[in-house]
Inverse folding.
């Protein structure tokens, strides 16, 4: 059965759960990072489910895809922020978060392809 709401989408549920985990990590960063890395992490994490929700509400497939692509790009930004936190020893085990972000990017990639109703191009990014 087709999704009736963006909350029915597995990709949105995963993005929402990741948002919560990133929020907790961001709040554990040093106080001097509150308006630096922590703020950027929270904004990137919140952008993903928000763009999925906004895209779901669009009528035209190309417009939906624009929002899904922005959400996917925010995953890349978020992955960078988690790596920065790990480099500074603020995130002891980044692998679970990085794995979640990677899975989210793959699901968004599939959502984009299915929205466009096109086959996956050979030799390109493989989810």
């Amino acid at each position: 059965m087709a999704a009736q709401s963006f909350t029915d989408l597995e990709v949105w549920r995963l993005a929402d759960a990741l948002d919560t985990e990133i929020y907790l990590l961001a709040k554990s960063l040093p106080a001097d990072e509150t308006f630096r890395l922590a703020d950027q992490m929270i904004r990137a994490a919140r952008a993903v489910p928000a763009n999925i929700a906004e895209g779901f509400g669009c009528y035209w497939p190309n417009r939906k895809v624009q929002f899904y692509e922005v959400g996917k790009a925010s995953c890349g930004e978020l992955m960078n922020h988690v790596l920065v936190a790990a480099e500074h020893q603020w995130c002891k085990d980044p692998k679970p978060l990085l794995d979640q972000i990677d899975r989210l990017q793959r699901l968004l990639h599939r959502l984009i392809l299915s929205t466009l109703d096109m086959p996956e191009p050979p030799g390109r990014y493989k989810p």
User: Anything to note?
Assistant: The mean pLDDT is 92. The helical segments are 10-27, 34-56, 61-87, 95-116. The radius of gyration is 15 Å. The domain at 6-116 is CATH 1.20.1440.60 (de novo design (two linked rop proteins)).
